[in-house]
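Researcher: Following up on the earlier apo prediction. This time include the ligand. It's 2-acetamido-2-deoxy-beta-D-glucopyranose, with the SMILES given after the sequence.
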Amino acid sequence: MRFLPHLIFLGTLVSSALAWDEAGHEIVATIAQIHLHPSALPTICSILNDTSPSPGKPLCHLASVATWADSVRLEKRWSAPLHFVGAVDDHPSKTCLFPGKQGWEQNRNILNGMRNVTNLLGDFVKKQRGGIIVREDMELANEALKFLIHFLGDLHQPLHLTGRNRGGNDVKVLFNGNQTNLHKVWDKFLVEKAIRTTPPKYNYPLADKRVEYSLRGTYYDRYIRQIVAEGILDSWKHEIPDWLSCPRPKISKDAPLAQMTERQSILSWAQWLVPDNDPSKGTDDAVLCPYTWAKKIHPLNCELAWPKELDQEPRQRSVEIETGRMFPRSDFEELELDTPKYAGVIAERKLVEMMLAQGGVRLANALNSLFAEDVV
Ligand SMILES: *[C@@H]1O[C@H](CO)[C@@H](O)[C@H](O)[C@H]1NC(C)=O
Ligand SMILES: *[C@@H]1O[C@H](CO)[C@@H](O)[C@H](O)[C@H]1NC(C)=O
Ligand SMILES: *[C@@H]1O[C@H](CO)[C@@H](O)[C@H](O)[C@H]1NC(C)=O
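Model: Understood. Below is the ligand-bound prediction.
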């Protein structure tokens, strides 16, 4: 979930910290894996070119490629802007616009990146049904699938949806006394703390075999068990249909239904009906609607993710003069965020867990709709 890969390795301290960064993406991917339709997995694994399972385990695992997209950011420079989106007029904590009158900062962003790779995978499936797959198709689908798995994670990190100070990467703060930045608090520290404080009972397997089957023996297995048991199977159970629903473009009664036998043609046809000034145009369809999903998550930045204290006197004066970076003035301590008022409220409202769960079930739904037989 980082904006830029780490360039300097300072021994074990830093490399173990890197491992934590990966947890968010791998948790989203594992929650998706738990919700995959069994008939979707063979195609997914053949695209991932990974079909040598351990006995009693799934054929392959989405989590094993969940952070690939971060590792190729330097090599594939064109992909760097696809990890986030920022609106020109957006300025949390005071102003949250998604987007405002001036639109997005960059034309290429996570919303159309997700659409691009999903369409590529849809084309691949069509070609495969026609039986004419060549090596280049396999390679393109492989890359597209790894990006899709990653982008679903990034879309559910609220600071990936604002461009202010590079999504908070340039905002220095403290977490439990450790110097870090606001972006990383969400990428890493909140997830790390939640994993550390998972109740010990989740060290033991759940009765639900679908969950255990998809776990990989990682340090965050217990956190996934908690998210599934308390959230997905319990308190959010009735919200999940809403999480998955995308506002379908209305199709008029006179529509030429006879021509709409294939899903793909319905989608492209329905796009005409979306007004040109609708920001969801070109990215959202009936199954995958990154704009609609992100628009609901984005207000969290003004509500609480971007601490209001950073924009208040006396800190405010230290901020963003010329460089656009928020360095605290030397006579002020950086703002501590591992406090009841910040990290405590986020934990109480289960916001990180909810974002990871939404990312996971939405990813599973998109993959099922692309690859599973007899669903949708
Ligand atoms: C699949 O993986 C094998 C072994 O790692 C490799 O030799 C082969 O080139 C890969 N195929 C594709 C299409 O990437
Ligand atoms: C779409 O995704 C493919 C596969 O990753 C990539 O090669 C291509 O550059 C992407 N195009 C855009 C416009 O993002
Ligand atoms: C940094 O955080 C770690 C764990 O997150 C904690 O053990 C350590 O005490 C913190 N460092 C400081 C200086 O507070």
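Model: The chain has one domain: 22-248+282-309+332-371.
Researcher: Noted. I'll compare it with the apo version next.
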